[in-house]
Amino acid sequence: MCGIAGYVGYREAAPLLTGALRKLEYRGYDSAGIAVLETEGVLTVCKAKGPLDALERRLAEGMPHGTLGIGHTRWATHGEPSDINSHPHTDTHGAIAVVHNGIIENYLPLKQWLEARGAVFQSDTDTEVIAQLVSYYYHVEEARTHTSLFDAVLSALYRLEGSYALAVAAAAFPDRLIAVRKDSPLIIGLGTKENFLASDAPALLAHTREVYYLEDHEAAVVYRDHVDLYTGEGERIIKNPVHVDWDTAAAEKAGYAHFMLKEIHEQPRAVTDTLRPRLVYDSAGIPCDINLDALDLFKTPLRRIVLTACGTAAHAAIVAKYAFIRLARIHAEVELASEFRYGEPLLSSDDLVIVVSQSGETADTLAAMRSVKKSGARLLAITNVVGSTLARETDATFYTWAGPEIAVASTKAFTTQLICLYLIALKAGFVQGALNNERYRAALAGLEALPSGIEAVLSQTELVQRFAARQFNKSKVFFMGRQFDYATALESALKLKEINYTHSEAFAAGELKHGPIALVDTDTLVVVIATDPALFDKVVSNIREVRSRGASTLVITRKGAGETAFAPVAEEVLTLPETTEAAFAPLLAVIPAQLFAYYCAVQRGNDPDKPRNLAKSVTVE
Ligand code: M6R
After folding, report:
1. Is ligand 1 within 6 A of the CB of residue 400?
2. Rounded distance between C-alpha atoms, residue 614 and residue 408, angstroms
3. What are phi and psi of 260, to 5 degrees?
4. Is this model's pTM higher than 0.70 or not?
5. CATH number, domain 457-607, options 3.40.1500.10, 3.40.50.10490, 3.30.750.24, 3.40.50.2300
6. Ligand 1 within 6 A of 311 CB?
């Protein structure tokens, strides 16, 4: 996720752009930049690695003057944070500048294609291909018909796969900006003799509250005194502006009350962004393989996988342990990073150690990673932050493309970590012969269905909210499940602990009689996670046992068979869509648990975004 801004009007563009970027920093803050069309027709780019302050210091040394410009605050995906990789990116001639929020999945073949036609690239980003492609269609011999910048942008879009919100400025067009979107937000703010572009409303509210929300595949040519709106095919459309009445804080959260709720709702997009660029599609557009070539994981057979992480990332690792065993038939184990570093682990060059960390800065996780490096075992990092210490110190890094996670309680980091881990487990299973082609392809289709599965779960939010209103004050909450569901139970209990400050514990359902049942009384809520029909009967007995001792119960189970099994015995049943593999169920089952923790915390009056005693990133031991 990144933030983009644009201005065309009568005022100095540079300070307006940096002001807008300040309001968009929550969307990304590893680098920032602006391009201003100076009065003599030169497109001047100024950009800097680091937070916006670094750009402002650079601008203080020499501010470009002009009344049209674009700006960007970056959360790196392709190419580490650096001055060169910061946006705006320009074509080889420096005459067309682009800012982009999204991911261009086919940027590598496009880059090669453009290089073969003389384009000279500066950065490692996917975005630069857009500037070069627009330039190609604007300039080249065989495309002379594309005389206008807008036509060139539309022609470039036909070549792009992935997601984008784009703002384009060109030296030859001092009167206009081009804006387009697909799967990433973009809005146009309407002023008087000036108009604005931004990823999100907070960047505009100081200047206007009248906006056009661009829909997918819509485009706009934004002039000083008017805006022309188009379909992606270039047909003119008419829309009514929308009046935004949020205050700035609400707008940063896209109208959600808290970042945590916003991030819960971002999961369909975050999962799609993490998944799709790694899938290979056949000519019918059906996923047929996973491309993990860059990670170079399968040069020799994987014999043992060791996963290490802290907190939520460790719970993703536990799901992955079961997934490696079930899908790839590879021995897998998980060690908390805080234990691993002191455990003198037995590792050899046959082992693959996967280190998982959203921030890539957790002290214990980094220490674990460094001890692995000394052991000679193969090492892979999964992280959300390009350029983080973990990414820099590890040769092979697999990124979750979740965008910045602001709330302390991890949500979209967990589900996107699961996607990365599922991809590795499935590929390992296929390459090493544990999965036949039929099951492999069915699993890939199942992965693609997960974002809509998340949407289906999110549609039951009201039910979770009502249940939370009745249960938030329980003094004990136990989450139980078996196998994959046990991993989900661990993550669910952590969420409730962190933000509702409830004593919540997870245990493997079979352990109930071995101790935990002694704690069950009328002030206890038991949340049962049961996604595997083969285990339903056993779980029904568990529910009867706790209900007979006065506990309240919620069951998170799959539609159909799960409802039939649990509706007669549980107080509340929440259903999930089916998944093609049992391994995928935690990615859906965790969503109601996230919502439940969130609504309990709100009911109690806690701030879910800033839980007491906790920091987003634990950079000390
Ligand atoms: O950035 P990391 O993934 O390394 O962070 C690990 C834990 O500190 C983190 O998951 C923590 O448990 C979260 N607050 C959980 O919501």
Report:
1. no
2. 7
3. -60, -45
4. yes
5. 3.40.50.10490
6. yes
